[in-house]
Amino acid sequence: MVPVAASVILQKQGVVCGVQLTPDLKAQYIVIDQVEDIAKINGSKYIQADATGIYRKIKTLLLEGKTVLFTGLPCQTAGLYNYLKGCDQSRLYTIDMLCHGTPSDKVFREWLSGVSEGRHAKYINFRVKDGDWNCNTVCIEYEDGSAYRADVTDDWFEKLFHYNMSLRKSCYHCKFAEFPRRGDLSTGDFHGIEDCQDIEDDHKGTSVIFVNSDKGQMLLNEMKKENVWMKEISVEDSKKNRICADIEEHPYRDRFFRLLREEKYDFANLAKRVLEHKFDIGIVGIPTVENHGSNLSYYGLYRTLQHMGYDVFMMERPKSAWWAPHETPVIFRENPYDSGDLCELFESRLQLQKANDYADTFILGSDQLWYEGLYACFDKFCFMDYIHENKNKITYAASFGRSEYHATREEKAEAAFYIQGIDHISVREESAVELCRQEWNREAVVVLDPVFLCPTEEYEKLADKGKKTAYNQYIATYILDPSPEKQQIIEKAAQKLELPVINMTDVVNVEEKCAQWDLDMESDVSNEDWLRRIRECTFFITDSFHGTCFALIFEKQFLAIGNAYRGLDRFTEILGKVGLKDHLVSAEEIDTLEEKLGQSIAYDKVRSALQREKEKSGEWLKNAICAGKENRLSGYDIIQKERMKEEEQLFWQKNMIDAHGNVLGAHDTRLAVYDGALGELQKDAEQRRILFEIQQKQMQEFQDAILQLRQQKEEMNSVLCELQGKNQALEEEIRQIKEKFPLKRWAKRFIQRFRRR
């Protein structure tokens, strides 16, 4: 409809402002004053137009007395009105387009470069209308005579646009797209015409127009004179067009733009990767568990792999686990993972097989995932049997947590079968090497916990977000298992160092742990707070392995209290590697504590030792990731896939049953409401019955009163009749007396006066 409106304005010696594609395929506003130039501004442009200088030019034209028609996006129309405040706008007409949203110019350029393959594009038609109005074809013509044509379902730029992935952030919540709109008219293709009962779709193209002002109605009336067929419809019939402020943002949009900025992939591969949810590596573990050490261990591996150049997603245990996962990590102040990198949660271990579509390499993360006490409560997911044989399966720094493996005979047999499908095994402790050999006949390599591989600046960024303390100097403690002996150590350190103490403990069972000693404990400590306490403390005391790791990472003076319950091997392992075994004490070593507190750590040697171990561990991880893998499925994989299909069918049936149950529940709710209403009606009826009886009684009393009054009336009538008879007799007697004794005139007057008295 814009060409018709433009023709009306131009015929009245006005000018039209619209968007054309320049020879270098940039969308740019121009002003035309000839009917034959309307073709320049026709057609859809799925890119934002450059409005540089156009508002100033329109203002000049209006001041010169010109009639101006401006056509553009709703936001640009609003921008024009804002610019023209205080200027006479009586000769300005505006038409804003029904806008889906505007893709980033960088997205357009990257796509154009990719599909052009070095050819110079001279023209682009985003909606080729050779056939049906639906026009699902985009076409680029090149100077060498060749062309690129693609269906919108096959072209990556079109897919990103229609899936709401490539739009600017502001487009998802655009107040200018809803009513009231700023343009005098709003127009666009009539999406949803097939559902409109009052109009027959001729498949040649129909526009929808909204009239938003008196000037818009005047312009529309002029357009009707141009032999244009129009019919009024309801707003409800146009609901498939965007006439609302909010549209749904694609959940992977931020990931798409992050990867676009990194320029690691060509445009087609990038779009395919994001739309199909493809990654290089999936990290399998418990990144949302309620534990500082585990959280930072998985975060460390995630950032390490990113720094190695890989695109990574995080994958949790299934919802069916007794110790169930969370949608996002719960003890970070804010989700530290890049948008789109947290995998959806799967219902069961069988459903975890869906992740095979997302990556070709899977890494089981660190921490105590092979501790037998966690095997069942994590739904036996820790050996990756659901990852198929044609995928590269790696464990990095997996841990038993202890030097012995006390699983049941059946669990050991299951693990022995599952472990054969893992291609590359690394563990965190030397004792785990022997356990792998002894229990499963598999060789393993010892590597550092992933928290050491991650660049320290990543932890610094997190620590900067933590809450500040009230102290410039203090002792920080992180005690997983408080006891009177550990309290003595802390009190002795505070006395020796003459510093205040900030105590922290595990996230779970805090009240129970606090009951084990008399010291105050800081509550609601986030991972960011935890890191900041360690980074900024003067001295650190911990019975936690990961607490010890971060003491080394932040190069703190510290004491590690050996925690045999949670596994002592990992303490001696890491402290032995850096030559700090003498900083590991037992809870009973209170007598030697003063000597330990006086020992200062020279971190030059520690740093060098850690660097050697980091390089060895990083090299092993890189080689494991780059190793090839034969593309074949095992019989177990095939059976598991079939079982997953059966389970999905069961889930579907369960959902149907649940849906029917919900319907029945809704019916039960309705019946309960009806029963309640019926009870109220019955109660009301009873009240009405009682009222009716009262009314009947009152009516009877009223009728009895009326009958009594009637009887009294009859009695009074009888008395009256009797009096009337007596009066008549008296009158007759007086008449007879008058006849016998005629009275003189003076006597008559006397009698009359007497009667008046």
What does this structure look like?
By secondary structure, this protein is of the alpha/beta class. The chain is 43% helix and 12% strand. The protein contains 23 helices and 20 strands. It has a six-stranded mixed β-sheet with strand order 2-1-3-4-8-9, with helices on both faces. A hairpin with a 5-residue loop joins strand 1 and strand 2 (27-32). Helix 7 runs antiparallel to helix 8. The longest helix is centred in the last third of the chain and has 106 residues, at 635-740. The chain is extended and about 165 Å long. The chain starts with a helix and ends with a helix. The model has no long low-confidence stretch (mean pLDDT 88).
Strand content: 5-15%
* Proportion of helical residues: 40-55%
**How many angstroms does the end-to-end distance come to?**
106 Å
Unreliable parts: none
The strand line-up of the biggest sheet is 2-1-3-4-8-9
Q: Helix count, per DSSP? A: 23
Structure class? alpha/beta
Strand element count: 20
Mean pLDDT across every amino acid position: 88
Radius of gyration: 45 Å
Q: In this structure, how is the largest beta sheet organized?
A: 6 strands, mixed
| Overall shape | extended
What's the short version?
It is built from 23 helices and 20 strands.
Quick tags:
757 residues; alpha/beta; six-stranded mixed β-sheet; six-stranded parallel β-sheet; extended
How is this fold's topology laid out?
Layout: H1 2-11, E1 15-21, E2 27-32, H2 54-63, E3 68-72, H3 74-83, E4 92-97, H4 105-116, E5 121-125, E6 137-142, E7 147-151, H5 156-162, E8 185-189, E9 207-211, H6 214-224, H7 253-262, H8 267-275, E10 281-284, H9 292-307, E11 312-315, E12 361-364, H10 372-375, E13 392-398, H11 409-419, E14 424-427, H12 430-440, E15 445-446, H13 450-453, H14 456-464, E16 475-478, H15 484-497, E17 501-504, H16 510-514, H17 527-536, E18 539-542, H18 545-553, E19 558-561, H19 569-577, E20 584-585, H20 593-597, H21 603-626, H22 635-740, H23 745-756
Helix pairs in contact: 7-8, 14-17
